[in-house]
Amino acid sequence: MTFQDFNFNEQLFEGIQSMGFTTPTPIQEMAIPAILQGQDLIACAQTGTGKTGAYLLPVLNHITGTAKHQTSALILAPTRELAQQIDQQVEGLAYFTGVSSIAIFGGGDGMAYEQQRRGIQNNVNIIIATPGRLIAHLTSGVLKLNHLTHLILDEADRMLDMGFSDDIMKIISYLPKERQTLLFSATMPGRIRSLAKAILKDPQQINIAISQPAVGIDQQIYRLHDQQKTPLLQLILRDSAYTSTIIFASRKEIVKSLYKELRAIKIDAMAFHSDLEQKEREEILLKFKNKLLPVIIGTDALSRGIDVEGIDLVVNYDVPGDPEDYIHRIGRTARAATTGTAITFVNHRDERKLKNIEQLMDRAIRVVGLPDELASIQPAPQSAQSDDKRKPNRPNKRWNNNKPKRNS
Predict the structure, then answer these.
(1) Which residues pair with 101 in a beta bridge?
(2) 292-312 tens-digit pLDDT
(3) Which of 82, 111, 239, 252 lies 20 to 30 Å from 103, alpha-carbon distance?
């Protein structure tokens, strides 16, 4: 199948061609016909499978063939970064159609709010928004969505994780009852199904490889203690051919610390965290996307808020607590049928987390032995490791061995 088989209008197809798209991904192949037929849809697909295009293309096709002087589509996203990236995709795909869009999110200055307000008053065709800022425009009376025909919830599971459930229902109270509603989610827990039941009408359901990373990802783990993590990371970055790397840490304090340590050895890296101004975050993402920045360090907020092709290495400096977050982290690489590497550092406290991840994927992750030069790095005294219940002077042969056995 090719995109020609969907019989999109000429202007939209020209935009698809200009962006180099020829063959739809599985989620696009399954979702686009249902959306073109006007059906509500609940779709579960892992990150990096092309789900943004799966809903944008049929919605753009509909808007292009109808009146363009009204707001027809609302896309809700959990983070400002994702909202901006969706907006950029709309601009690319809709370049020849005349369809307009705007990203609405909080965190900006008064000028940004005013720009959003003007876009709303000009009846922009597609609004991509985070729930909180959208509610501010709705309650102010500036935004009227009486003519809305499409509501899309992107990364719905993440929005619920972030506590947006009440906000979503409040937003829906402002929308016409007759509309097409599309819900896209990487996971399908019970509360997502409850939300879908409340806001969708007889939806078609699509399920694409839940909780399975792309086949092109070479997954590796290193077993080590905390004092070996940063030296190993430095070796990996300094002596490798990786050109585009994301490092995930559990807390922004670790992100800031890693940034300083990597910069100290002349590795061109930037930290991405909530203490930065919105403009600074946008500049970092733009540099990374344009291959002007080889390494970016962030927390899980970055794992679902960045859509960049060509990332060849993901490093989990800390093992995520939720196995699904592991899937989202490593899903930043090997996108669109490419290949990539995902390396995870596992200390003795993370064994349970690793087991949960491997159970979720129904496969073991390959263990790689530590480089010889890290063998001399000793773990911190036991008294400093408050969550370690072992006796202070009892050696842990498994975790102090610099060459763990490979996983068969």
Answers:
(1) 126
(2) 999 999 987 676 556 677 889
(3) 252
What's the CA gap between 308 and 119, in Å, rounded? 27
The residues with which 44 forms a beta bridge, in sequence order, are 185, 207
Q: Rounded to an integer, what distance in angstroms lies between the CA atom of residue 85 and that of residue 223?
A: 35
Domains of the chain by start residue, with CATH: 3-208 (3.40.50.300), 217-400 (3.40.50.300)
CA 221 to chain centre: 22
Residue 106: CB atoms within 10 A of its CB come to: 16
List the structure tokens of 137.
């425009």
Q: Is the pLDDT of residue 63 over 90?
A: yes
Burial class (CB in 10 A: 0-12, 13-18, 19+), 197: exposed
**Contact yes or no for 18/91 (Cβ under 8 A):** no
Q: Which residues contact 311 (CB under 8 A, 6 or more apart)?
A: 244, 245, 246, 332, 333, 335, 340
Name residue, tokens 């990096």: 48
Strand residues in 62-211 grouped as ranges (E):
73-76, 101-104, 126-129, 150-153, 180-185, 204-208
